[in-house]
Design brief:
Elements (H helix, E strand, L loop, with lengths): L1 H7 L3 E4 L1 H5 L9 H13 L4 E6 L12 H6 L8 E6 L2 H8 L6 E7 L2 H8 L3 H17 L3 E7 L12 H12 L6 E5 L6 H15 L4 E5 L6 H10 L4 E4 L19 H9 L9 H15 L16
Parallel strand pairs: 1-8, 2-3, 3-4, 4-5, 5-6, 6-7, 7-8
Helix pairs in contact: 3-12, 5-7, 8-9, 9-10, 11-12
Bound molecules: zinc ion.
């Protein structure tokens, strides 16, 4: 696997800290600080950033400032700003701003999670995601489809790989920019990740594959490595390892941007991110959040000096 991973040479990172990272925090981070987080992400090299989610502010109060934040985004031709949306209404809100370059649509593997997370069954969420991609394209933007709870559901447990592969195949028909497999509750292990990434890559024929891991059970980085070895091209990560899902009990943080960057760069795989400003940004974020962040690399001495 190592040889195949190294052959990839470059992995694209998506910084999801401003959205996934902050949505589950007890404190509501001020909009100015979110804008600063995005500026710092651009400084450390992030060129695709999930900036917010256009969801009902009563459901996710931490992201109620979506429109205000989007108005503060730096004007950069070389940065893709992603807005997460769960339905057509959210897509309309996101597309109303010229600054959102890409819509992030989310479908889920189980009716139990879908109903709680977004008021949709699994089938409804896939249909909605495909409609969102069509809306993005009609508006001259790109869109991605994420299959959430791809490695386990917080309510129904095991998720059949056949079901995920089938969803991915159908999602690919909408011609999104990429398909993502998300381990929303951090249940997956490297063996499962390698198998599912391999099967989905085959099923979606040439469409790039993104992965999104949470470190709930400590297998986040190993899962990244397994996915990269099987040909995933893009990895989501959140600065400091913040994150979680308000509708998935006990879900811990995303894999940390600085930890994934260290892992890949030291293995000879370029990420486009620079570790020094990344670690500095993580320390800044720790002061904003006012609690120790789960990430490891930003707590350790710089290596090499
Ligand atoms: Zn997540």
């Amino acid at each position: 696997m190592a040889a195949r991973a190294l052959a990839a040479k470059t992995i694209e990172m998506v910084e999801v800290g401003p959205r996934d990272g902050l949505q589950n925090e007890r404190i509501v981070v001020p909009t100015d600080d979110k804008a600063e987080l995005i500026r710092r992400a651009i400084d450390y090299g992030a060129r695709r950033i999930e900036v917010t989610s256009f969801v009902n502010p009563r459901r996710v109060p931490q992201l109620a400032d979506a429109e205000q934040l989007v108005a503060m985004l730096p004007e950069r031709d070389d940065v893709t700003y992603i807005g997460l949306v769960l339905n057509r209404r959210g897509a309309e809100r996101a597309l109303a701003s010229e600054r959102i370059d890409e819509l992030g649509a989310v479908c889920v593997t189980s009716d139990a999670f879908g109903t709680r997370n977004q008021g949709q069954t699994s089938a409804e969420s896939l249909a909605e995601a495909m409609a969102i991609v069509a809306m993005a394209r009609a508006a001259g933007r790109t869109a991605q489809i994420t299959i959430a709870t791809a490695f386990g559901c917080p309510f129904t447990g095991e998720v059949a790989m056949d079901h995920v592969v089938d969803m991915a195949k159908r999602a690919a028909d909408a011609r999104p920019r990429e398909i993502a497999l998300a381990d929303t509750i951090g249940a997956g292990t490297p063996g499962e990740v390698a198998e599912l990434v391999g099967r989905v890559s085959e099923a979606v024929e040439g469409l790039p594959l993104r992965v999104h891991f949470h470190n709930t059970r400590g297998s986040g980085l190993a899962n990244v490595w397994a996915a990269v070895g099987e040909g995933a091209t893009t990895v989501d990560a959140a600065l400091g390892g913040l994150g979680g899902c308000p509708f998935a009990p006990g879900a811990a943080g995303n894999v940390a941007t600085e930890d994934v960057t260290y892992l890949l760069e030291r293995s000879g795989i370029a990420t486009g991110l620079a570790l020094d400003p990344l670690v500095e940004a993580a320390r800044w974020l720790g002061n904003i959040i006012d609690r120790p962040l789960p990430a490891m690399v930003s707590k350790a001495p710089l290596f090499p000096e």
